[in-house]
Design a protein that fits this description.
The protein is of the alpha/beta class. The chain has 15 helices and ten strands. Strands 2-3-6-7-8-9-10 form a seven-stranded mixed beta sheet. Strand 7, helix 4 (about 130-140) and strand 8 form a beta-alpha-beta unit. The protein is globular.
Length: about 375
């Protein structure tokens, strides 16, 4: 006889809450991350958070049923952020546990009080509960709220994909929440992640996801393939064997032993298709970097955003990592330069840009273009 397993909440007091990175990533532009829970009641079968480094359980099956609650997270976050330069913080987790514990809301209050910009990635419309705080933060810093959506209810394999998302709210509810976020002038869009082979990568599904994003106020769709590692991969293959046996061999071919993903040239075709659809519906396939008018390092941030976009375009075109590497190093070098490149250019001219480590003549020209464009904004 099958029994329904109940969710258990385990409160504890960690010593730290904030993860600090050397520089912002080039996808979400986050410098810091802080999350209130370990485990997720939504329990999507493909979730990368089932990897051993994210899910410290005796068995991976505990992931949606044993939710570890960091009860002192807001106090830890306040103490940590108070000592750091302002930059984007990835925060918030609106799984059902949040209704009970409200830790995400209290962490947002900390970000508001300390004037830190916020990034949220969600699968739940529960984030609308805190819309008042998001509006406040957006007025003094910046807020980006992204929704993880990999299909629509009109998609060819909607029922099968929904089964893999288990208890996550329907895509329609997420799109509706996104529209409400957009109405308040908050940057929003869709994380089309992970794109599941033979389920989410059909032309019809890609078109539906991108079109509905545009129709609901989203400004961009960020696409990325499924990744599989260690215990997460073993778990997902067991799920396929039991529930989608016709897909098992396909996924084993795409993700052989010691392969994390993505699944080769096929992924590049999907990425290019997402870009084509984004252009068609008047949105982007990259997330704009949060830059407030008058920021001291605005030109530098714009330059890094430009270089990151070029790197992604080169990837979609199938260019080698070797050819992309100079642009990546230059982006890091500009990010790490304390002075704004606009100020460097005004005081030292083109030679000042050439003095930045890993900035060659070609990239120097790109920086000059960005600076001139930024000057025209003022």
């Amino acid at each position: 006889m099958n029994t329904v397993r109940k969710t258990v909440f385990e409160t504890y007091r960690p010593r730290t809450i904030l993860n600090k990175h050397k520089r912002p990533d080039h996808w979400f532009w986050t410098r810091y991350t802080a999350y209130p829970y370990i485990g997720c009641q939504h329990g999507c079968h493909f979730c990368y958070c089932r990897e051993s480094k994210y899910a410290p359980y005796d068995t991976v099956d505990d992931f949606p049923y044993r939710i570890k609650v960091k009860e002192n997270a807001p106090a830890l976050l306040r103490k940590a952020l108070d000592k750091l330069p302002r930059d984007v913080v990835a925060v918030g987790d609106y799984q059902p546990a949040e209704k009970k514990f409200e830790i995400s809301r209290r962490m947002l209050e900390v970000c508001r009080d300390l004037r830190f910009p916020v990034f949220i990635l969600e699968r739940s419309p529960l984030v609308l509960r805190d819309l008042d705080l998001l509006i406040e933060i957006n007025e003094i810093a910046h807020v980006s709220v992204l929704f993880s959506i990999i299909h629509t209810m009109d998609s060819p394999h909607a029922e099968r994909i929904s089964a893999m998302e288990r208890l996550a709210p329907t895509p329609d509810r997420r799109f509706d929440a996104m529209a409400k976020i957009a109405e308040k002038g908050i940057q929003t869009g869709v994380c089309f992640m992970p794109i599941l082979p033979d389920l989410c990568d059909t032309d019809e599904n890609i078109d539906l996801v991108v079109r509905k994003t545009a129709d609901h106020g989203g400004g961009f769709v960020l696409a990325s393939p499924l990744t599989l590692a260690d215990q997460q991969k073993a778990y997902f293959f067991r799920h396929l064997e039991a529930n989608e046996p016709s897909l098992l061999d396909t996924y084993k071919n795409f993700y052989p032993a010691n392969s994390y993903g993505p699944y080769g040239g096929r992924w590049l075709k999907v990425g290019r298709k997402v870009r084509e659809k984004a252009v068609r519906y008047g949105i982007k396939d990259r997330m704009p970097r949060p830059i407030r008018p008058g920021e001291k390092r605005a030109a530098s941030k714009r330059a890094v955003e430009r270089l990151a976009g070029m790197i992604y375009t080169m990837e979609l075109e199938g260019k080698s990592e070797r050819s992309r590497w100079p642009y990546r190093k230059a982006a890091w070098a500009v990010e790490d330069t304390q002075q704004d490149i606009g100020l460097i250019y005004r005081t030292m001219g083109i030679q000042g840009l050439k003095n930045i480590k890993d900035v060659g003549p070609k990239i120097c020209g790109i920086l000059e273009e960005v600076i001139r464009a930024e000057n025209s904004r003022e």
